[in-house]
Amino acid sequence: MATTLVETATPVQYQEGMMKRQRTVFLVAGAVLLVFMAINVLVGSIDIGFKEIMDILITHDTASTKGFIVWKIRLPRAIAAALGGGCLSVAGLLLQVYFRNPIVGPFILGISSGATLMVSIVMLTSVTIGMTLVNPFMCTLAAFVGAYGTMLIVLLIANRVKNGVTLLIVGLMMGYLCHSVTSVLVAFAEKEKIKGFVLWQLGSFSGFKWSEIEILCIVGGLVLVLVYFLAKPLNAFLLGEDYAASMGVNIRLFRMLILVSACALAGMITSMAGPVAFVGLAVPHMVRLLFATSDNRVLIPGSVLVGAMVISLCDFIARMVFNPVELPISAITAFFGAPIVISLLLKRRTKI
Amino acid sequence: MNQALAVLSANDLCVGYGKKTVLENVRLEFVKGEFISLLGPNGAGKTTLLRTLSRHLAPLGGEVVLGGVELGKIVQQDLAKTMSVVLTEKVVPPLLRVFDFVAMGRYPHTGWRGRLTDKDNQVVMEALAMVQAGELVYRDLDTLSDGERQKVYVARALAQQPEIILLDEPTMHLDLKHRMELMSILRRLCRDKGICVVASLHDVEIAAKISDKVALVKGGEIRAFGPPEDVLLDDTVADLYDFRNARFSRVLGTIEMENRVDRGRVFVVGGMGSSSVLYRLLSKKGYGIVTGVLHRNDIDLHVARSLGAACLVQEHLDGISPENMENARSEMKNCDCVIDTGFELETINAGNLALLKEAVSMGKPVLSMRNGSGRELYTAGEYESIKFSTSESSLVEMVKCLSLPI
Question: Would you say residue A14 lies in a domain?
């Protein structure tokens, strides 16, 4: 909020001033996102020249080794990371606004714990007997079932409880419940399997297929559009459910829509990339401060852009810093994200 | 009941949570442009009643009727255009300016994106001007003081352009200045805008002075509902709050702490408004008060009574009757000291001066606040034995020094 406004400014002048600033931030964030995505395609463990990559992209060459790397590995990964970051950030924003709590993230309702539980069953037990290798597709399917199963249970409970804090605690308890079962499975698991499981828990955007990206684009896109339509009631929720109801918001309907959207987004990314930590919690804070507003009509598209931007950068670091060893994405997001959020909050003294 | 005039009415309403009934048989009727206060002790059910009237709680029985339609049947959006609320909850979203906060009140009037038209902007600015908070318009909400924030909350409620506003304890946490300012703002909303304002209040004194009607909430029912002049009687208020050591005076419109005697008895000769401050001070310090002889229309009499002092009253506006003089003499004998408040002397209270002179000759310690030429009323001998003082507080200090028996 750099500009100090005099009382004599008209509302229209004030609104135009805000919009001007926000438009600039949108443009800059969009440009930075494109640059990061480009870097993610251009740079990797194998050196491929800029001109060569452009040729591969233009000719749609998937046959050669380099073409395969660009088309089947780097490009899907760059897109998946951006989409994943956007979806997780919006999920986090939705839940932070709904619960009016700054330390809420997309996984607060137990989505990731449910996914982890199901994945641990697949990866650590002998359910997969007869399969010599743990199939990545099985992991995705298990995580999907776990994430959305938990979501259904939480939503059923949400329909019955009256206030947000109770629901928050229910979500936390669901998390602990799933976690305890997972711990038992870990205790009985073979050593070699545990490393794979732990790495899955830290998330990764590698190995995305184009078919998965299509699903991500279509489903994710639809949910994001729906969320944008929720922006106005979401703003009313900033004042709490009681005020929102008194202003004409159908609480039961919109509570469900908010929770379903947040869980759907978080569940989708979790099943494909694992529970990527921290982004969903940190990005909404960054966006609020960047755009200097709590208006969700700005924050929703803002979160998509900034979330995509942040994850693109983090994924690049994860791939390159100990090249060729790849780090889990959660390690990077938290390591760089936490200090940034702390310093931003201290500087601006904002609280949600 | 005249349904046509009533903005909001409750018919045989029963409110509560789940199976627990809080209030029964609630019959209320709120008319356009009225200020209604809900009074009652903590936990009596004021908030529960308000939440039922605002449809945050479903009624357990009976019905609430808003503008002729049963509350449950009104579309949420339409309800928001007719009724708005100010809750006790302190809501301070971050990074939100006062303008945007108040603009949220336009929610039921705007389209799906919540875009503000010129008219919306105008309504917001008017609402802020109405609550005298125009200068706060671009401040951050979290930089406001409690009083400023409360005004902004009222402005948000106003931006909904309602016919009725429900406020739950709007003056809580406010200092005296902001409390009075807020009440006069609300009063003005009723008078100028014709809005019906319903507020739960703790302050009986303010409620009595500002409300068109008050509803007394206690013991699971509405004890009384009507103009404060009819409803707020000395006994009903004391009963409402179970006062043990304070009492309400309908005439004065104030609550006085009752006189608890643990020091000694003082006879105050005063009248014509000269003694009110002294009564309160003596009462606060724990002296028993006997006062007289006061005329029936004297302000001192009302204050003394509300403090629970023993009063000797002259019924008619003439000289003090022989019986009253006799009563005063015998009361004076039982008191530890006698105080002359320096009352203005007229023919009808000449008896009081005589009483003071008798006190001196009785050998009672006499203290006086009479000053200047007024002191010439006493003879030289009397003058010698009277202790003079210029203010109530120094006088009470002197009473203390007499070391009266407890």
Answer: no
Q: Are B94 and A350 inside 8 Å of each other by CB? A: yes
Q: Does A3 touch chain B (CB under 8 A)?
A: no
Q: Which of A27, A85, A81 is nearest to A290 (CA)?
A: A27
Closest by Cβ to A14, choosing from B54, B81, B138: B138
Instruction: State the pLDDT at residue A2.
Output: 42
Q: What CATH number has the domain bearing residue A308?
A: 1.10.3470.10
* Short-list B356, B296, B283, B301, CA closest to B325: B356
Task: Give me the percent of chain A exceeding a pLDDT of 90.
Answer: 47
Distance (Å, whole) CA A130 – CA B20 = 60
Q: Structural domain of residue A178, as residue ranges?
A: 21-347
Tokens of A330: 């959660």
Distance from CA of A5 to the nearest CA of B (A): 6
Closest-CA distance, B208 to chain A, in angstroms, reads 29
**What six digits make up the tokens of B4?**
């046509």
H-type helices in B131-196, by residue range?
146-159, 176-193
Residue B5 has pLDDT above 80, yes or no: no
Compare all CA atoms of chain B with the CA of A11 and give the residue at the minimum distance. B121
Q: B56: which strand partners?
A: none
Q: Is A247 on the interface with B (CB under 8 A)?
A: yes
Across the interface, of B84, B95, B104, the residue whose CB is closest to A288 is: B95
Return the bridge partners of A337, or none: none
Q: What are phi and psi of A323, to 5 degrees?
A: -50, 130
Q: Which residues pair with A316 in a beta bridge?
A: none
Whole-structure pTM value: 0.85
Residue A285 is assigned to a structural domain of this protein: yes
- Alpha-carbon distance B6 to B163, whole Å? 11
Domain count for chain A: 1
What size, in residues, is chain B? 406
Whether residue A39 is contained in a domain is answered as yes
Check B114 against A235: CB less than 8 A apart. Answer: yes
pLDDT tens, residue by residue, A182-221: 999 999 888 888 888 888 888 889 888 898 899 999 999 9
φ/ψ region of B266 (left if φ > 0, alpha if ψ in -120 to 50, else beta) reads: beta
Per DSSP, the residues of A126-181 read: GGGTT-SS--HHHHHHHHHHHHHHHHHHHHHHHHH--SHHHHHHHHHHHHHHHHHH
Report chain A residues whose CB lies below 8 A from the CB of B148.
Answer: none
Res. B2: pLDDT tops 50: no
Within a domain: A2:
no
B89–A350 CB contact, under 8 Å: no
